Amino acid sequence: MKARHVLSVFSTFAVGGPQIRFCALANHFGPALRHSIIAMDGQLAAQKNLDPALNVRFPNLTLNRQDTLGNISRIITFLRAQRPDLLLTSNWGTIDWALARNITRTRHVHMEDGFGPEERSTQLPRRVLTRRLALRGSQVIVPSLTLKNIAENVWKLPKSRLTYIPNGINLARFHHAASAKVPPGEGLVIGTIAALRPEKNLARLLRAFHQLRSQIPARLVIVGDGPERPALESLRAELNLTQYCHFAGHSSAPESWLAAFDVFALSSDTEQMPLSVLEAAAASLPIAATDVGDIRAMLAPENALYLTPKDDVALADALRSLLTAPGASAIGAANRAKAERDFSEDTMFRAYANLILPVS
Question: What is the pLDDT averaged over residues 163-182?
Fold first, then answer.
């Protein structure tokens, strides 16, 4: 069978949840697909997660962020030249491609995973209208019930065009993994895995950890990289946390870090269905997190008491409670059972296959 050509467009192909999920899907479908991947910012770090045996290329298309109409024209020309079997786009940053495919009638699947800092609190009217117009004829995949509700009731997309597919992970990978080496120190280990971007609000986690450290000994490990790292390292020094807080940088083996943590923390202002929380649940960790997106539905009921408002003090209290709670390990076990029941990678693969593999 001839491999189908999928043209995938991302604002960035740096390492993040949507990119990691895409790589897992591409690896799973293997030779059934050949891939062209465009990263609009030129960042391609996530390509290391792709199987080297895949048929993948990275074409260039120069666009001007200030020239929407010109961009759409260039994209139309590009789509007509490439003639992909499927256009796969991701999030708001690729909306010009969705507008262009309405002219070329290229078969289109749009994956919407959530919002950047500019939409962390409310939907922007101009973007709502643009999504409503651009995506009405496309198939739209959302990983969270929160996003499904927004797409139906705010963007007014037809229900027949919406598909809810929860993220799934390789559960075996996070079960009894070998532990990374955490720098020595006193106290249990709080850890997080996140891209260091503004909407992740890791400054909140540092401030919460500072409050916590004044009451009980603990250590903090932040795994990930991104543009916020210099500011966060400055805040760490300002709060006198340098000897207690370790920036580990990006890791291609998150399971080893999760095995080293006693509690997982998430401090984001906006999320939908973060892979890091699924991975922490699969690693049998109790989780303290801001109560955003679908996180409450992702975790076992036993963990619900440790979901907090977007507040430093509340997050510090939740972390302290988990570090001192005698039943924390039972909460982690309940999270693992929930992940096994609802969020397997195979279930996700089957759902995506129904949308990506059909020819018609």
Answer: 93
